Amino acid sequence: MKTDLDGHFLYISPSCEQILGYKPEELITQNKFSYVHYHDKKRAIKNLNDVISKGENGRATFRMKKKDGIYIWVETLFKPVRDPDSDDIIEVISVIRDITERKISEDEVRKREETYRNLVENSPDAVILASGNEIMFINDTGVHLLGACTKEAILQKSLMDIIHPDFHDIASKRINMGKDSQEFVEYKLIRLDGSEVDVEMKGITTIYQNHPVKHIIIRDITERKKTQELLLNSEKLSVAGQLAAGIAHEVRNPLTAIKGFLQLMQSELNTHTTYFDIIESEMNRIELILTELLVLSKPQDLKFEMKDIAVIIEHVKALIDTNAIMKNIVINTYYECENLMIRCDENQLKQVFINLLKNSIEAMPDGGKITIEVINHGKDKVKILFKDTGSGIPKELLKKIGQPFFTTKENGTGLGIMVSKQIIENHHGTMHIWSDPHGTIIEIILPVK
Prior knowledge:
Catalytic activity: ATP + protein L-histidine = ADP + protein N-phospho-L-histidine
Helix content: 40-55%
Strand order of the largest sheet: 2-1-5-4-3
Number of domains: 4
Distance between the termini: 94 Å
GO molecular function: ATP binding; phosphorelay sensor kinase activity
Oligomer: single chain
Organism: Heyndrickxia camelliae
Keywords: ATP-binding, Kinase, Nucleotide-binding, Phosphoprotein, Sporulation, Transferase, Two-component regulatory system
GO biological process, one term: sporulation resulting in formation of a cellular spore
CATH class of the largest domain: Alpha Beta
């Protein structure tokens, strides 16, 4: 078809009837834009004006109305025609073709992609679309899981950058395998701040931007693993308690008899008193272990009274100071507030504090410093910090501290920290441990009054 600069038809080819249903004579002198869909008219006029002003060929797509009233999508190629004498553009030749089916297909694909994107974006699981090792897309849940502020921070990285090195081999095999995962596999990912997170991942093939990619579903299983670990420790603790009760009673009975006969022998024999002292000392140590075992086996009768936490700590410090000084260790105390009264069983809290200080002393064979801080924690709690300058606890061992019968000491029972935690929990408090190569910090939080 040929139009003037305002869009009036000057010539229509017979084939136009196959596309629009109009005979050429029905369109001559009519304005082309009166047949263009009103939503597309401004854009179609602009396209024609651009061709005229620039003097260059152009291309556009818009909807035109057929004789039966139905609108179809057409693709139009524009070519300006110049006057041979003045070189001014006087007409525009347009070639149109029906692209309705193509547009419908494109719209369906776009709608499917939008639906897919909405599902992925709003998924409670983290989702990554990856082509090989290249990350093509990540949803907001994934950005949050990996500790990023923007998607771009993740898109700049590869899959192997965010997967822990220990899992590179299995990840490479699954990438190269090409098959979809039938079930979730556990991995460890590295967040942008360097911390690690336990996840399970599953990859299925999909199409993204007309290319096959892996749709990787990532689920954070950190809380689940913590729960499993707590359940496991709970089971261990239950078994430990049952075992402890049996051992304690079985050993305590003959121990009582031995102590009785030892006292009789001491009263009758005055020789080898050193041997008697050693035997008695060792039996007292056995009794101490039995007492710890019994704490595990059943709740103790706690005698709660109002006590000044600073006084309790100072009493414990006085007991430990001599041993600390002999090992070139200084114990400092800092109290943010005075006369801080808590409702507690004084003897049990002393047992906890003595245990923690002894552990700190043993962690510093070459001397060092222990700091005890007592500070307010909110309106109704107090925080007690035990800090030492020892070599710290290795990361792989730190998470095992407090498990039944786990110890790093040659003569340890593996019960001290666990019993201490239980005592603190019986006081409605919490106990946490942090450690690095520069030392260890133990935090105890207890309710006030």
